[in-house]
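Blinded run. Sample ID left blank on purpose so nobody reads anything into the name before looking at the predicted structure. Input follows.
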Amino acid sequence: MQDLVEALVSSKEWTLSPPEFVNEEDDSSDDPEDKPIITVGGVMRLYSSFPPWDDKVPAAVDRAQYDEVVEIVERLTEFSLSRGVDIVFEYDGEVVGKIRKGLANDSLSDGLLGEWGRTLERDTR
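Blinded prediction complete.
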């Protein structure tokens, strides 16, 4: 995963900032029988196109960010398939989709990417 994130970082100029590799362990549970939650992956910062900032994000920036996220999803889909791992996507702390065995679920492909793409298409008409 670290190699993939580093390859993405060096692959292009990113709209806001390149993805960052994350390898964290959260053992903050008060229950001694709970196992720590380990997170390995990447973080990408985005300009928000949701209210109240939606009108402040230029359409070209929103499109560029969308294209970047699509690229990341494609690369992680390949990674999931080749490594046999599941990948979870979060936006602002909320799960917005998953990739399992190289397949993006409907929430990721239709919900996040599909709706974002349709919004971009409507805004360019």
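Unblinding after everyone has recorded impressions. The mean pLDDT is 90.
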